[in-house]
Fold these 2 entries.
Entry 1:
Amino acid sequence: MHRFAVDPEVVAGGRIVLPPAQAHHVADVLRMRPGERIVLFDGRGTDYHVELTVVAPGDVRGVVVERLAAAGAMRALRLILVQALPKGAKMDLIVRMGTEVGIDAFLPVLTLRSIASPAPLRVERWRRIAAAAAAQSGRSAVPAVEPPRPLAEVWPLLSGSLCVMPWEEEQARSIAAALTAAPAAPSVALLIGPEGGWDAEEVQAARAQGAHVVSLGPLTLRAETAGIVAAAMVLYELTLRQGPLIGPGRA
């Protein structure tokens, strides 16, 4: 069934009135009819199966017929991506792919070697991309996307998280080794550097904060690739390798 992200108040009651954008898509693009069903989610981990009762241009209504916990909604691990702000539209790609992989929050940061400067309007765009990617990938919890901030200001937000910093100059320690050696934590924060890589001063400061500096392997990855690869490694080590998937998987 087609999935749509909506604000929580839309699904608060049993009867649904779709917002204009979703109503247009259902009525004018998909040309759905009364009696057909769609799925709505409010970003909090529940799917609402809705049977359409009225489908007209600008007016789509329905009733909730079933509430289900979404696939992956019960995953215990929270995964945070602290991403040095890349130039151009690369952050769009990072948010889309990261949402599809299973990242729960994006924290863009400004670093010593950052090239890009933050644009306030981009944050809302990233949030829309996250909502669309969550709908496409079957997630009902839309990742949080924070405004860019200096790296030094992000550490209080990571309190209690296991912080992992891939660095091209670290050759020996892998993500798997760091995760195995570290005490269990409810969340893992991946710190991914900019196009020019982390500065040694930033790595030293991260170590002082308790971060584990690791290698992603012998190949040099782009800034927009490294976080997705690292996220997949962490999720495999901490959720997939040790037991069955929670909920149905999708190709």
Entry 2:
Amino acid sequence: MEVFTAIILGIVQGITEFLPISSTGHLILVQEVLGVSDIYGLSFDAILHLATALAVGIYFRKDFLKMFYAFLYRITGRPVEKKDEQLMWLLIIGTIPAAVLGFFLEGYMDTIFRSPVLVAWTLVLGALVFLFAEWIGKRYEFQEEVPTKVRALWIGFFQALALIPGMSRSGMTMSGGLMLGLTREAAARFGFMLAFPIILGSGGKKLLDLFNAGAFDTNIAPILWGAIAAFVSGLLTVHYLLKFVKNHSLTVFAVYRIVLAVVVLIWLV
């Protein structure tokens, strides 16, 4: 794999993992455009996931450290900050659906649903979910900053929809949060933190499987540059998207997804 190609794919992964436009869907489409489907290795895929997970971990490091200390204080009998412990449990509960469904369905989704045509249609479907979530949010003017445990579980099911290429993890969690009473910014923050263990686990599992099978790509330079590109672009995307959603809706992303789907379908005809 060429370094330039790796950097392009890394930037695409970093940006689209957190913008509500689907990282898997865009990678499939970019690979088709660049003609690099055969050289986009599983080891590279795993490293890109770990790089974007690192970006989330770094950006929300204070929150994750507070939750870690809350866990330690609880098991050692020391006083615990309630809101930190609450957030820890909400993230654990919200992670369960995607973790369980991903364990059983990820391999199936990675093969059956990697068609550009199917990605185009799921881009449209995701856009409709965004528009419906925005309509619900505006109709009821929700102002909740933290979900309940039941709502966290439901947001976790929305996250599981991202197993389908083209749906978007961040888009589904933000939409779920909006429908279930959160402000747009709170839904985005919770969705990003909820993504951390799933992205980390997915990338780590792929990497471990490759090492166990002796199939890890030893062409380190492109992998390293791709990972750096994914990390930097992911970190910047998280930062600026959180600022964007304070005053803007998801409608612009819905329109983009529909336009992209139309372009893809025309291109493939």
